[in-house]
Amino acid sequence: MAASSDSVTLYCTFHPERETLLRCNRCNRPMCTECLILVPTGYRCKACVADLQRTFEKAGWGKALLLGLVAALLAALGGWILPALGLWLIFLTPLWAYLVSEVLLRLKPGPGRRPYWTITLGLGIGGLFPFLVEVEGWLVAFFVGLTALFNPEVEFPGLAILIQVVYRALVQLVYVVLLWVVVRRRLYSL
């Protein structure tokens, strides 16, 4: 049996003078290569891509706040445990961040704008929370340390306290930055 030569000639929906064999995989309208956009699931027309982007930009405040709160709680939990492990912080924080991002992804239902600003705020506040809870003690220690630098009558432990406070703040900051980078990268990649 020979193939039928009665195939229908398709023309681009937006450029009727152009013949094409391509179709949008969502609306199934014929499109030329200029009108199609490559997405992970195939080719889509610009109208379908714009429609999907509008769908993803709709966000409920309740879900955004829930994700921010969960991010803050998980970041605070890790913020108490991981910085206490010293150098292991660098190796364990990406693993913890992967787990945090998995929890956040599982809480996100269907299409909707990913509320990155609430997640970022939650990670920042939650990650620094263990340090900020003790801020009064750290501030006193910091000023005692500063006094030791400028007053020769104050004993040497003041400087050691200052170094400890600065070290603790830097470790907590490293934790928050590592956590944020890994979670953000994971959420943006999907």
The percent of residues in helical segments reads 55-70%
Shape: rod-shaped
Number of H- or I-type helical stretches: 6
Contiguous uncertain segments of 5+ residues: none
**How many beta-strand runs?**
6
What does the average pLDDT come to? Answer: 78
Q: Could you list some keywords that capture this structure?
A:
rod-shaped; 190 residues; 63% helix; 6 helices; mainly alpha
Task: Give a description of the structure.
- By secondary structure, this protein is mostly helical.
- The chain has two domains: 10-56, no CATH class; 59-188, no CATH class.
- It is 63% helix and 8% strand.
- The chain contains six helices and six strands; from the N terminus they run E-E-E-E-E-E-H-H-H-H-H-H.
- The chain has helices at residues 46-57, 61-81, 88-107, 116-133, 135-150, 157-188, and strands at residues 10-11, 19-20, 22-23, 30-31, 36-39, 42-45.
- The strands form three sheets. Strands 1-2 form a two-stranded antiparallel sheet.
- A hairpin with a 6-residue loop joins strand 3 (22-23) and strand 4 (30-31).
- Helix 2 (61-81) packs parallel to helix 4 (116-133).
- The longest helix is centred in the C-terminal third of the chain and has 32 residues, at 157-188.
- The chain is rod-shaped.
- It starts with 9 loop residues before the first strand and ends with a helix.
- 22% of the residues are buried.
- The mean pLDDT is 78.
